User: Fold Peptidase A1 domain-containing protein from Marchantia polymorpha subsp. ruderalis.
Amino acid sequence: MQGRPTDSLSFNSIMSMTSLVAMAALMLLTSCTVCDGSAPGSSRRLLQVDDSSSAQSSFRMTMMHRDHVDSPLRDASGNYSFTERLKSAIARGKVRSKSVRRVIAKLTESNSSHPREAELLGVKSKVASQQGEYVVNFQLGTPPQSFVAILDSGSDLNWVQCSTRKSRINTPNPPFNPSTTSTYKKSPCGTTFCNSLPLPRISCTSTCEYQYGYGDGTTSIGDLSLETLQLASTTGGYRRVPNFAFGCGQENYGDLAGSDGIVGIGQGPLSMPSQLGSVLGKRFAFCLVGMYEATTTTSPLVIGGDAFWPSNGSLWTPIVKNARSPTYYYLQVECIKIAGKCLSIPASAFNIASNGAGGTILDTGTTMTELLPAAYNVLIAGLKTAVKFPQMDGSWYGFDLCFDTSSSVAAPVFPKISFRFSWSDFTLPDDNVFLNVDVDVYCLAINSGYGINIIGNIQLQNFYVFVNKDTNVIGWKPAQCDTIKRELEPSSRTIDALMFRQEAALLDRTCARWQRFVKSSGRLYKKSSYAHMPCLPPSAERGLTNILCEPPMPVTGRMPVLKSESKIDLMRRVSGTTPPSLL
Assistant:
């Protein structure tokens, strides 16, 4: 049996050094209660919430499905059956996924994610089709003007139609009028916000203009502007955020499907979560109501500390970076399971290629999950064997695979389908994968696609999905989305949940500093095999003790003593104390 490699330091010397590192880290933890992760002496934040009490709160926006009775996107021609609504959603989803693939293909065929187009006077960016399934409400200006916009996880720029120049898009509310607000201003050239537009400016004389082109031909041309954003707070009332960057769309063409604009929740610096993250923490969460109840129920989009839900059953996976396509949320799929068993799908079906192509993204605008043929064909073959109901033609409904369940006396039971992500399984409830489209007819809500795998919104429905950009993870937990808004009210929170949220925010702010300190001051310790301990993702079962964990590191030797300890456990053991913020 192979022995443990000999370390250059003795265990006692390692522990002594670790103690020094830990004590310094404790001082850092206790002195960092108001730090925001910026370097000392750095410029102040551009965004500031104008009510100091909001420091412990978050923003909440009401989301509704486009088929909701109050949605401006709802087809006013009549009440449609579930099957009719589903067929329309599938058709929209195919348009959307085609646009997503076209955009990503364009990004990955060049040497940069920001290719120049010299023929344009302004900034032109190619993003996915705006056709979305969910809308949110928000207000801009002083006094505030109200808008309803499509929620889009595949874009960053927030924009609304403005009243200047011309437009060929019908909107449910009057266009934004810059002349009636006292807090409006155009963004100058050369600012961080202007430089964050997906394509670098070719020429800019004074103020920043943009041209945002969507995959389906919809275009918005206008001024990148700064205005006061007003949103509801999770602690009651409203909060106002000055200098929120958005697009004042002066020339808009195409189909916004009855909305006033777009709210981008992508990973870029212009997205709403990214901008508000500078004052509320880089985290947000959403919960999509299911298709069955979509016409009468709503759910929340939460930005800030309350987006973190410390509850049993939460699972996590890291966000995968793709430099060629930085806006989308990429996840690493390791396998697809039927009834708990991984299918024999080649890893190349899930991996991102060297040019940025391929991989798997989450997309709120695509209706159904779409898989590359190498994965889809294996899944279909496995289901045809595992499902005992007779197969039937589902083309009329818009599906590739359907089953006749008329022989079942009780509610039909299907084998569970799971996506094995890094760290966790994403197991789909039957309602999210086998849709009851007609009497005794259930269809697989997964289709074949090309270029990239897309996890669609049907698979995300009735999951509370939370994104933490500070730790670069996405989490999820099954939920009844139309009841989440009540759980977010202050009166319904437990003391433990409040303490967990507040302390988690502190830990997020200190996480990066602690890791940097260890790397700079504990190099000798890091060289030892004792430092290379397993690191588990944070979860409610393990509590806060693993929040400071880095992603798993390679193990260089045997660790009989420290195998099960997290870094914060090690700090506690060698120092003999526990920071108050970690109790």
Summary: The radius of gyration is 25 Å. The chain has three domains: 52-300, 323-461, 520-582. Confidence is low (pLDDT under 50) at residues 1-46, 51-55, 111-130, 487-583. Residues 520-582 form one domain.
